[in-house]
Amino acid sequence: MAHDLSNNELFWCKRYSFLLSKGYTLRVRYSPSWVPSWRDKRGTEGLPRLYEDHVENVNPDTLDATSHNGTVVFIKKIYRDEHPFEEDLALYLSSERLRKDPANHCVPIIDHFEDDEEEDIHYIVMPLLRPFNHPEFETVAEALDCMKQALQGLKFMHDNRVSHGDCVASNIMMDAKYLCPNGWHPIAIEETPNLKGNLQHRKRSDVEVVYYFIDFGLSTRHPQGRTQFVTGGTARDKTVPEFKLNIPYDPFKADVFILGHMFQTEFLTKYRRLENLDPLTRLMTAPSPDERPTAEDALKSFERILNIFSTSSQQRLRRIDESEAESIAQDFAFATKHSINHIWSFTFPPPKPSHGEETGQSETGVTEQAGKGTDLSMILRSR
């Protein structure tokens, strides 16, 4: 019923039939004929939280849907007058030629089309992804892998003359289909697709996890051999020094600052045992853009630093707020647990999906693996 939806959700409800004609089915909550499952029920059965269709979408620009083959995807609406280049840049970075590059960590675009009512509105369709840090990282190697992929992805964009403009933590996601093989609810991400239980996940170190940059609304494509300076600072990271100056600046160097600052806030200030990365992140966030490395040089420095971690990469990440006693106890529990798991997995090895295998999701949203896989477990992937 329309009056049970927020104003943001009403937009999608009005497009239900249109998106269906494009091969995408929105959740029943957005069907024009929707009647809340808890309506007219009494007692505990009348609690909305017991039913999947009570979950409200809070992001006005994106919504999950199920494609004709049962795969859960995300649809993003783009207002061309606000972000005239976002769709074109996303399609460029997801083009067949660039998609073949293993260093490409830009979100794949599955489909794109125009609205049937408002010509200013366009849509892009993307895979179902999760925030890069949910569930939390366990080991040093897992954190290093994420940071390495992010640097590779930034270098790839810069090599192809694209500055991201807003590569903050919320714009880095991960493909978690192997990490969470039973799927998750696209909005209530800590729960199963049907909200009947909590999220179940494997260890990152046991599966392949690919990280992606999303949201190219503030991105710029530059001519070959020339950097197009920009003005303004509308990115979410307001600490970039040049954003505070009303003069043109190099957006490539701003990208390096933003990503370096993300490494600091999401890793170095949350976890111990990553201290060897501090000099690099300080350089990436130097006040003067001229003192910052390029994305290529930052990646080279990072890869050299990896050698320092060679003997400690499988250690547990210690949280900054842990006491010494807590750290020792948790390190011991971690080592014991993983020793037992290692013996068990060696004796009864589970099948592991190989990179590139197709996956689908059933009508209930549960991810279905399409075939047996090979062992993809590795400390750090050479992408």
TrEMBL record:
Source organism per UniProt: Paxillus rubicundulus Ve08.2h10
Signal peptide: none
GO cellular component, as recorded: nucleus
GO molecular function: ATP binding; protein serine/threonine kinase activity
PROSITE patterns with a match to the protein in the record: PROTEIN_KINASE_DOM
GO BP term, example: mitotic DNA damage checkpoint signaling
Membrane-spanning intervals of the chain: none
The protein's name: Unplaced genomic scaffold scaffold_125, whole genome shotgun sequence
UniProt domain Protein kinase: residue ranges: 1-383
Region (Disordered): 348-383
Family matches, as InterPro entries: Kinase-like_dom_sf, Prot_kinase_dom
Superkingdom as given in the UniProt entry: Eukaryota
